[in-house]
Design a protein that fits this description.
alpha+beta; 3 helices; Nuclear Transport Factor 2, Chain: A
Length: about 170
């Protein structure tokens, strides 16, 4: 399998985990230092000096996951159903990646930046919501195996009021 097909399969696999939703397995796709970021403004430069809709490290992802699956969580009162459509997948090799980094987690240390357009339909509390965004994944890779170092979700309407996001996009 070529690298393009492997990357596409990885994105489709990630989307299927979110569609189920299977947050237990989804969180395991991230590196220990992985981040999930949803900026609250177009072209937002960083998540530290500006407000974001979501900026989670691995610990916060674990907390959200536990809260989502907890038997007494309000999210359990209503089924959550999602459907992801992914297109315009582009792969860029990150020339600044340090392949000798000890925490690279891969034999080659390659870092790929993958961009895609995604449309997500979420059904929750008898309401359908539609989100559209440009996704950017920074992936550590070893052969055709990948781990997410960072996922950035740039909504097409980031400055619009957002209803409570019950699930990661």
């Amino acid at each position: 399998m070529n690298q393009r097909q492997a990357v596409e399969d990885f994105l489709y696999h990630e989307a299927s985990l979110l569609d189920r939703p299977d947050l237990d397995t989804w969180v395991s796709l991230f590196t220990e230092d992985g981040r999930y970021w949803m900026p609250a403004a177009e072209d937002q430069a960083d998540p530290i000096n500006h407000i974001s809709h979501v900026y989670d490290d691995r610990v916060m992802m674990e907390i959200r996951r536990r809260n989502f699956v907890h038997p007494r969580a309000s999210s359990k009162d209503w089924p959550v159903r999602c459907s992801h459509l992914i297109g315009n997948i582009r792969i860029h090799i990150d020339p600044s990646a340090d392949s000798s980094a000890p925490d690279s987690g891969s034999a080659t240390g390659d870092v790929l930046t993958v961009t895609s357009n995604q449309h997500v339909v979420v059904w929750y509390r008898d309401e359908q919501r539609v989100y559209a965004y440009r996704g950017t994944h920074r992936l550590l890779c070893a052969g055709n195996q990948f781990a997410i170092r960072e996922k950035r979700v740039d909504l097409i309407n980031p400055d619009a009021p957002q209803r409570s996001l019950i699930i990661y996009l």
